[in-house]
Amino acid sequence: MAKSPLSIAVVAAGGDRDDAMALASLARRLACEGGGTVHALATGDSDDVRGLAAVLAGALAATPADVVLLPDTPDSRILAALLAESLDAGILTRCTSVARSAGGFEVACATYGGVARAHYRLRAGDHPWVLAVDAQAITGSGETDPVPVIDVAAPAATSHVQVLSRQARQPSGLAGARVVVTGGGGLRSEEDYRRVEQLAELLGGVAGASKPAVVRGWARAEQKVGLTGARVSPDVYIALGVSGASQHMAGCARARVVVAVNIDRRAPIFAHATYGAVADVNTLLPVLIDAVRNAR
Amino acid sequence: MRIVVCVKEVADPDRVNELAQGRFLRVDAEALDLDHEHIGAVMNGYDEQAITVATSLRAASEECEVVALACTSRPPEQLLRRAMELGADRSCWVRLAAPLHSPRSVAHVLALGVQFLGGADVVLCGHQASDDDQGVVGPLLAAQLDAAFAGDVHRVEPGRESTLLLHRRAAEEDVVLEAQRPALAAIKDDAWQPPIPKAMHILAARRVAPLEVTPEQIGVDFQRVAGWESGVERVGFELVESGGDCDIVEGDSLDDVAAALVARLRGSGVL
Ligand SMILES: Cc1cc2nc3c(=O)[nH]c(=O)nc-3n(C[C@H](O)[C@H](O)[C@H](O)COP(=O)(O)OP(=O)(O)OC[C@H]3O[C@@H](n4cnc5c(N)ncnc54)[C@H](O)[C@@H]3O)c2cc1C
Ligand SMILES: Nc1ncnc2c1ncn2[C@@H]1O[C@H](COP(=O)(O)O)[C@@H](O)[C@H]1O
Predict the structure, then answer these.
(1) pTM over 0.90
(2) Inter-chain contact B148–A161, Cβ cutoff 8 Å?
(3) Which of A89, A288, B133, B208 has the greatest number of C-beta atoms within 10 Å?
């Protein structure tokens, strides 16, 4: 049964543009199986996210799509939900693969922070689907001929919310860092976390944190790596006293090399690590810092 | 003022991670989900945060009640008792005949639940529920209630006239938004610590039973729900295998281990 042509729209909002355009190859694959079309809608950022969804829904009404793809980032996930409501569409996020099947789509999604994967059959035809897809999980042919981009003006007047104040925070530095050194729950004190920062600096990298290091006040929330923190893809990710919980690994799964130091040989982090050491990180750190300093 | 906090019960994520560590996680092939046998159920972490945001807003306002709202097919006594222990004034359970799989159905039922309770000035949801991590019911509900919406909110306080100030921690900046009522905030506070439940709240949790309502009572559109539910079907569930063999460096002393790590780091091009 030849597949009917599909119209696919990719939404690239504000800072998520690169992640969105990485979905172009997926959009082409889904559309071309049935001779369909692909176009992208690009907007700026807006604090009035309902207003942003309204202007995008307006643009989508002009060029209706069977599937709307957004990157699975915190901001685009919210936009995807708002768009699904405006378009009376189905919604699914955390998607790691999307394929066409008889009558609709087969989609896989990460669940429980990435510990498991659920597979769904989505029925297409009577209403569109909005899917938030993890751009990093989509391996497709890198180069595809460029997708036509329609620029949609972000809403001028914010009808729903007014910005009273805005204060930039010191950026984490994690985005684009080639080396990340992360301190976790295995550290014993704030002083131990200061050593993590020292090691990061010596290696020309940036200090990261897992949730306990933030909750204990040793690291700023920006430094948290993971499912609800920063997603990093450094050359080397050094995890010190980090168990390797799925919600944390969701933020560093793209590291080329993972180095783990953990007192427990069975810690899940070792299943993700390229190399590491079974040791007490709090006593090893000062010795490792000296060794690195002398090796430079 | 009425603040409605939407609360959901999830598998205890710390327990899931513990079982994952020991490779004890099992799949329930019939439910197409984790086998919940050795995993307790708890209130979703971000929903606990939402209740404490609600009680702080109540403390800064006059004439204000906090209502916890759950929509589930399984009796949520434990969930709603936890909401009361954290300071909710009362709770409401929309009793479903069967679980809902489409988040649009859930948002539809919650929106009608809010209306049944007499409407809300503020609705709070968690950033995401830690079972499927979808993070969509908040914005879906905001759109259905035509409420102002902000995500990543860690604090809400009363504004000048009857507006609300939503403190949002965006990716690289802290933003304070002023919103008209009704407003819906998705709550996320990375530095949150669980409060010590107050005795009077623990007592109230024992005394005050949840208000139980049926989908019919609150006016659920069963035809629309049937449409949403028939559009999505879970057909598979598996654990993600993460097996790599890690080269563990050895050493008799910390100096040896450090030297071995430095050599490997040099090999990785970091030194
Ligand atoms: C919805 C949701 C979202 C989440 N998002 C995130 C997120 O974005 N980022 C994140 O990090 N977490 C997140 N979490 C929390 C996550 O589930 C884990 O609880 C957390 O990552 C655990 O951090 P940890 O491994 O550093 O600490 P712990 O779980 O405390 O583990 C400490 C590790 O250190 C080892 N250790 C102990 N002592 C020593 C020592 N002396 N020397 C060496 N090793 C030692 C232990 O063997 C253990 O492996 C989230 C959870 C939920 C439910
Ligand atoms: N069945 C439900 N009952 C009440 N609240 C819910 C329900 N499902 C989701 N929510 C709310 O929506 C938030 C996000 O859920 P989700 O979109 O599933 O990640 C949760 O943290 C809850 O606040």
Answers:
(1) yes
(2) yes
(3) A288
